[in-house]
Design a protein that fits this description.
1 helix, globular, 43% strand
């Protein structure tokens, strides 16, 4: 998960591959806080063909191109489709979306950006 204390940072699933390596890297970030937008506030604006870069730990940048974006109900999240290993370098950017459920104190959906390394 993304770090709760700094909403402008993303969380990378460290037990998976590093972004830019062969396989599926998972990066999650907050869409907002109780008082302001957060790091993935504009993630929903990405469209097929858009490019973005990920700064890697070694200082290099991995460039990805968006294949698709899709929102999924949290109760019906397609784990296999999102987290499955891939034969090439891919990344999934994940944040909350949908309606905010005040009783649950959470959003009803997750937005996933599917992208591949170029």
């Amino acid at each position: 998960p993304p770090p709760p204390h700094n909403t402008n940072l993303v969380g990378w699933y460290a037990k998976g591959v590093s972004p830019g390596e062969r396989g599926t890297a998972i990066i999650a970030g907050h869409v907002d806080t109780a008082t302001s937008p957060a790091v993935f506030a504009r993630l929903s604006e990405l469209e097929k063909g858009d490019r973005f870069r990920v700064l890697r730990a070694d200082g290099s940048k991995a460039t990805f191109v968006v294949d698709e974006t899709e929102s999924f109900e949290k109760d019906d999240f397609p784990d296999e489709r999102v987290y499955a290993d891939t034969p090439d370098a891919q990344v999934r950017l994940i944040t909350c979306s949908g309606d905010y459920d005040h009783a649950a104190k959470d959003y009803t959906e997750n937005l996933v950006v599917f992208a591949h390394l170029v």
